[in-house]
Write the structure tokens for this entry.
Amino acid sequence: MAKTSHQRAVVAVILIVEAELKWEERKKGYKKDIRY
């Protein structure tokens, strides 16, 4: 049970980190190209 919830927590953290990285890339791209 604890293992399953821990795995869910890890997946949630990974998704959050990926979203943050994509957001950072989008902000950088926004500075270069103002089509977004």
